[in-house]
Specification:
By secondary structure, this protein is α+β, with helices and mostly antiparallel strands. It has 18 helices and 18 strands. The strands form four sheets. A seven-stranded antiparallel β-sheet has the order 15-12-14-13-17-18-16, with helices on both faces. The protein has a five-stranded antiparallel β-sheet with strand order 5-6-10-8-9. Strands 1-2-4-3 form a four-stranded mixed β-sheet. The relative contact order is 0.11. The structure holds flavin-adenine dinucleotide, D-malate and zinc ion (ZN).
């Protein structure tokens, strides 16, 4: 079938105004970090699951690849088309209804294109909590969150997107609909297809809706900002926080001084606290089931012990919601501040918490030895052992030239170090196309071979988001 005939068929299926073929399509073709620009044959915007299935079926018959896209906030270049001009971008944005909330079952069922903040608000209106929380929550979608198994800032208490999901509705590569929207917490009826699709980044199926867990809203939430003298002090503080706050510990973020200096430079009105005198700061959140006073007492006690132990040198507990929001806003602004500073080499790694201090010491030393004046933007979800260990050009060195000269080598140094400390080269962002070539070097070969077989079994024509996560091209496959 010609491309022309396929586009005509797609227009018949979902309406001509929802098949975008001409004009400025950069919102769908450019990745969030503006590192990669693709070219789509067309962008299609179906309205419901049946239309998604019909589009996928038509594309499969025409052997045309489909790239699912939610909010296009992914950080590993997985949601834009390649530059061939032959792939269809399938935007889920019009599937944006919250279908149901079951208060007794503590579940919410929503369509894949719902923006994460919209899902949080729907839960809030039912006086319940949907805990998934990311800096991109104003534009990323539930489908994208599940396709990437997103993490964010509440993982240490509630788990990542996978742990929050009970059921999925999925369109297969053949255009069939898998009706799996169960709200069951126990269901051992065979292979776990839901967990196969979660984290598969649009390569095994297209998520059209999901049933997610909800939680009771905490009675009080309190936030503190602490200056710590080192990474090992931050790890020590994490241990104390677990011990003293138990399940009340819902956030534990670490931010290096250079990361905070970028927020101070690019977003001065946010007034970053305590960063100038300390190599690292930590943002802690305590969610209490009793009251604000109880939360404060427990926090004060924790900080007293931490001061005595020497793992905190200064700290401030937010006085009100506005101040707490400002602390979080500072933390969430690091990504944007870094983008404003210029292109950087981004890493999203995880390590056993017990190995993090030594990893940072060793890898900082390695990079400094190889690149005089290198600037390391180290921050992340320390409570989950997840660092965004990013590498910025030395002052005065053009960012594009730095990336051209150093990116492969920096990746190699950082990832070798991650391997030496038994970590992972992707904690929460996924593989996309950015890490496609790195994965075979660091993934267990048997696991990688099984992943390729699964891809082949579920998508034999290879039309679902090809060359993302695993390559099926023989030259890259080994
Ligand atoms: P997209 O970017 O559109 O797509 C991401 C991948 O999922 C692509 O491979 C795409 O093909 C696939 N996909 C999208 N929708 C579907 C679907 N319905 N079915 C099947 N496949 C689909 N991530 C974190 O984990 N933690 C963070 O703390 C975090 N913070 C961020 C902060 C900022 C400022 C930014 C820009 C990004 C951040 N991210 C974070 C990354 C990103 O927001 C998440 O990966 C998010 O889950 C992507 O959702 P999306 O809807 O934008 O997906
Ligand atoms: C974060 O934790 O802020 C996000 O994962 C985004 C990033 O890594 O820049
Ligand atoms: Zn993160």
């Amino acid at each position: 079938m010609s491309e022309h005939a396929l586009l005509a068929q797609l227009r018949d299926l979902i309406g001509a105004q929802h098949v975008l073929h001409e004009g400025d399509l950069s919102a769908y073709e450019l990745d969030w970090r503006k590192r990669s620009q693709g070219k789509a044959l067309a962008v299609v915007r179906p309205a419901n699951t049946e239309q998604v299935a019909a589009v996928v079926k038509a594309c499969a018959a025409a052997r045309v690849s489909v790239v699912p896209q939610g909010g296009n906030t992914g950080l590993v270049v997985g949601s834009i088309p390649d530059d061939s001009g032959t792939q269809i971008v399938l935007s889920l944005q019009r599937l944006n209804k919250v279908r149901a909330i079951d208060k007794a079952n503590l579940t919410l069922t929503a369509e894949a294109g719902c923006v994460l903040a919209q899902v949080q608000q729907a839960a809030e209106q039912a006086r319940l909590l949907f805990p998934l929380s990311l800096g991109s929550e104003g534009s990323c979608t539930l489908g994208g969150n599940l396709a990437t198994n997103a993490g964010g800032t509440q993982v240490l208490r509630y788990g990542n997107a996978r742990e929050l999901c009970l059921g999925l509705e999925v369109v297969t590569a053949q255009g069939e609909i898998l009706h799996g929207l169960t709200g069951l917490r126990k269901d051992n009826t065979g292979y776990d297809l839901r967990n196969l699709v979660i984290g598969s980044e649009g390569t095994l199926g297209i998520i059209t809706a999901a049933t997610m867990k909800l939680y009771p809203t905490p009675a009080a939430t309190l936030t503190a900002w602490a200056a710590v003298p080192s990474v090992s002090a931050a790890v020590q503080l994490l241990g104390l926080a677990h011990q003293h706050l138990g399940a009340g510990l819902t956030g534990f973020e670490m931010m290096g001084q250079f990361a905070l200096s970028l927020v101070d430079k690019h977003f001065a009105p946010l007034r970053v606290p305590l960063w100038q005198d300390s190599p690292y700061c930590v943002l802690l959140e305590n969610s209490d089931t009793e009251s604000q006073d109880h939360a404060r007492q427990r926090f004060e006690h924790l900080l007293e012990v931490a001061f005595e132990d020497g793992c905190v040198t200064n700290a401030v507990i937010a006085e009100n919601i506005g101040q707490a929001c400002n602390f979080w806003h500072i933390r969430e602004s690091i990504t944007l501040a870094q983008a404003q500073e210029g292109l950087n080499i981004k890493h999203d790694i995880s390590l056993p918490v017990s190995a993090i201090a030594e990893f940072v010491q060793t890898t900082d030393a390695l990079l400094t030895q190889h690149i005089a004046g290198v600037r390391i933007v180290n921050f992340g979800h320390l409570g989950d052992g997840n660092l965004h260990y990013n590498v910025q050009s030395p002052l005065g060195v053009d960012a594009a030239t730095f990336l051209k000269d150093f990116e492969p080598r920096v990746n190699e140094w950082v990832y070798q170090s991650v391997r030496a400390f038994n970590g992972s080269i992707s904690a929460e962002h996924g593989i996309g196309s950015l890490k496609l070539d790195s994965l075979p070097k660091y993934k267990d070969p048997v696991a990688l071979a099984l992943m390729r077989e699964i891809k082949q079994a579920l998508d034999p024509l290879g039309t679902l988001n090809p060359e993302r996560v695993v390559s099926t091209k023989s030259s890259r496959a080994l």
